[in-house]
Design brief:
3 strands; alpha+beta; globular
Length: 142
């Protein structure tokens, strides 16, 4: 995930998932989605990222990065079908999209700035789960 995110950052010269989506001609729609933070869809070769318009700014950013991960890593995945027939595949896709999002949004320099922080403190500072911070720290050392 780190390599894919790094290639995108270099190519588009930004970590902003909204800017990357725009440059890739992925339509981002902000709309009321109830308890759902967002989802990715594709129709007639057009890609869409749907984001709940009730999210905070950090949640919007992470959700857009997560859904951009689906657009890049799983562009043709039919998640409603997978959810109905095989939960394991959907879980794998969600994990991959989350990992892509933290690699896109959190760079090594930012992590170094928080050098004395514990994993729980880093998770709170970046607004992500401890598992994702552990993953990002692990791949950053590779």
């Amino acid at each position: 995930m780190l390599k894919t995110a790094a290639q995108l950052i270099q190519y588009y010269e930004t970590r902003d998932p909204f800017a990357i989506a725009r440059q890739r001609r992925i339509i981002v729609i902000e709309e009321p989605l109830g308890s759902i933070r967002g989802y990715y869809s594709r129709s007639y070769r057009q890609q869409f990222i749907h984001i709940n318009n009730g999210l905070t700014e950090p949640q919007r950013l992470f959700t857009c990065a997560h859904e951009l991960g689906h657009a890049i890593l799983h562009p043709k995945a039919n998640t409603p079908f997978l959810r109905k027939n095989t939960l394991l595949s959907v879980n794998r896709y969600e994990i991959e999209a989350n990992r892509f999002a933290v690699c896109l949004l959190i760079d090594d320099e930012e992590l170094r700035e928080y050098g004395d922080f514990t994993i729980p403190q880093l998770a709170r500072a970046f607004g992500v789960s401890e598992d994702l911070i552990e993953y990002r720290l692990k791949v950053g050392q590779s």
